[in-house]
């Protein structure tokens, strides 16, 4: 199959209403990112889906070739938006020596984020239960919804929620609840290997930043990220670090600086100031429908009235993960590529996972 024909077919699929009805904005973005990477990366195998783009051939297709002029034109286009260098050279520095990009802050706007550094909160069952109850309360889901009265009330509630731009898809899945430290774009094996090596190299520095002591956080109330509660896009629980933020922020800074030095952080992300927060609702997760366009936000005033002062509890930060987006482990949390246990028990060893 000729690459341009395949590309057209995939684009038509992504644009079809049947396809968008079953996936969210983020999932579409991820699929497009992977496909665009496979299309532009000449003579390289895509780590995500195993496609070889060699003289514009695809696995399982015919050996049709384009003209030299057309290949030159496509090469020029690819050079403009091609991801950062895929070469990893480990020079043995204290951060694993992973100089993947030519600059400390790299540019790669064509691809979506594939991985991130997370502080898992879903490991606390009581917090997961609170989030489930929060979602069920807002959505009007109750155990006694089988009787006629409850069913009628539930339908009326659903209609009202729709007008507010609220549906189940915009709630964060309780089993993935976390704090984000840093977003990463690791769409090939070389970059994933480089990230793991960097992560492994800073375990001691993270412990030093925490003074070898455990760290706990409090989650209380809700707030929106930019905008107003009437037209909210992201609703989150503010984070208060017990005993002050210094130690946890120092540990986060160690992580960010190491990955920046390794060439795995975008320039725009390097310049951002970290604000730890626990997202509970995000419109980017909304499932696409024919009516999606008018719901680029939701009315959170009713949610704030009921949960604006909610005490979500105090929780120990037990570990830090190099997590993979769009892939989940058996416990429901994002796939763990590597994990560093933080001080909270006798055994302070590192656990590593195969990629």
TrEMBL record:
Q: Which domain of life is it from?
A: Eukaryota
Gene Ontology CC, one term: nucleus
Q: Where is this region: Disordered?
A: 60-101
Gene Ontology biological process:
DNA alkylation repair; regulation of DNA-templated transcription
Q: Name one Pfam family in it.
A: AKAP7_NLS
State the InterPro entries in the record.
AKAP7-like_phosphoesterase, ASCC1, Cyclic_Pdiesterase
Record-annotated A-kinase anchor protein 7-like phosphoesterase domain positions: 113-342
Q: What is this protein called?
A: A-kinase anchor protein 7-like phosphoesterase domain-containing protein
Species: Lactuca virosa
